[in-house]
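Database export, one record per block. Field names are fixed; values are copied verbatim from the stored entry.
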Amino acid sequence: QVLKVDRATGYIDLSLKSVGEAEEKECLERAKKNKLAYQIMQRAAKLASVPVADLYEELGYARAAEYGSLHGYFVRAREDARVLDDSRYGEYFKKVIDEGFKPPSYKVRIDVDVSNPVDGISAIRGAFMEVLKSHPELEIALLRTPTYSMTRISPCKEEAFRAVNDAAEIVKNHSEMHGGTFTIVSPARVYGEKSRYMLLEDRN
C-alpha cells in the first residue's frame, strides 16, 4: 500500500502490511535503486549548481518514463555514455558516474610456506623468479619465515585466481625439484570485493 509519494526525490513510502516476502523483497530492491538514482541526481545538481528539483523537472521524470526508471537510465548511461549527450547536464552525470562507479578491482591473494634445507634462500628466490617470468604483475611478499604471499590485482576475478594458483604451482614444482618443501597455508581468496559499480548493473 502506498502511503506517500515525494516527487522531488522519487521516494515512495509503503506499508508492508499484508505484503508477501517476494513482494517485500521486490519493493526494497526498487527502493534501493531509486535511492541510488536520487544520489546521482543530487550530486549532478550540486556540480551544476542547480536545485535537484529543477533537474528532476527538466529531465528526471522524462528519462524515468522513457527508460522505466531513473536507475534504468543511469544503467544505460554507464554502458553507453552517449545517451547523456542530449542533455546540457550530461557532462555532470558523466563525471558522477565515472568517479563514483568505477569498475571493481579484485585483489586475490594466496599464502604459502616455502623452505629449502638444501640450497636455502637462493633456491626460494629462484622459485619466485620463475613465477615473475610468467606473471610479472604479481606482488610477492615475505609475511614471516617461511610464509610468503602472492597477490594479483585485476578487474577480472577469474584471471586473478588463475594467476595466483598458477604461481603456487610453479613454486611447488620448483621447490620439489630442488629438495625444498611447499605448503599452501591460506588458499587463494578475494580481499575487498564489494564495489558501488555493481549497483549500476542491469540485473532486472
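Remark 1: The helical segments are 21-48, 52-67, 70-79, 90-100, 121-134, 157-177.
Remark 2: Residues 21-48 form the longest helix (28 residues).
End of record.
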